[in-house]
Amino acid sequence: RNMSSAGPEGRKKMRECEGLIDSLVYYIQGAIADHEPNDKATENCVCILHNLSYQLELELPEIYAQSIYMQRRNISSNDKTPGCFGTRSRKVKEKQQDTPLPEEKSNPKGVESLWHSTLIRIYLSLIAKSTRNYTQEASLGALQNLTAGTGPMPFAVARTVVQKASGLPSIQAMLHVSHPAVKKTAVSLLRNLSRNSSLQNDIAREVLPDLVSILPECVPGCDIACETTASICYILFNLTQSSSHNARLLLSAHGLPKVIAISMND
């Protein structure tokens, strides 16, 4: 667990270690099957997988990058817009959202397991069944890592979480836990999911009222709560910017007074 947070080279070596990722997944599957999602070893395994999924899109071995990602195209500088992830092309972003992953392997091995739907469902199961805050946070964090990029893999993972694995209720429950880091990570995951236009109506329908309910009346003092508040506002912006229906949901959930109050702060 400590070594998995040692940086890019450490992550690379551990991802390449034959049988390591498979063993971690195997152990967690056994723990869930035995109804023991709260043991310390499961927490350690999930935290390792969480760390190994960090910046996965950028650090994928060339063999996977070639099969998953489109060839880079020369893009006119006129089409580029600055954003949170640097200068990106709006057209490429839209295209990537519609680019499916290659067909999933029924028996993934090694690094392939890190974005496979089997592990995504394991994370969602742990979020729902575990009561250990570190296990919940690591499971949410792994999904946050996997949905953080702008290529086809993050958007495919997002679709799996929301539509194929019906994961929103499990994430929704984490918005109301008392542990601030768990809540922050759940909101950060939803922020990533809300960037996918095909999922915005599902997210608005299922979690928008919950997001409004935990939105404070003003900018909070502590760093974690402030970051969580900013992420919620970003989600609400994503959900409402191109949907009048979702904007009406925000109004009916009495979210506008809170947004106005926050915007009045210096």
Automatic annotation (TrEMBL):
GO CC terms, sorted: adherens junction; cytoplasm; intercalated disc; nucleus; plasma membrane
Basic and acidic residues biased stretches: 94-107
Domain of life where this protein originates: Eukaryota
Residue ranges, annotated region (Disordered): 79-109
Annotated SMART domains: ARM
Location (main, coarse): other
InterPro entries linked: ARM-like, ARM-type_fold, Armadillo, Plakophilin/d_Catenin
Compartments reported by the entry: Cell junction
Gene3D superfamilies: Leucine-rich Repeat Variant
Transmembrane regions listed in the UniProt entry: none
Family per similarity comment: Belongs to the beta-catenin family.
Name of the featured protein: PKP2 protein
Source organism of this protein record: Drymodes brunneopygia
Gene: Pkp2
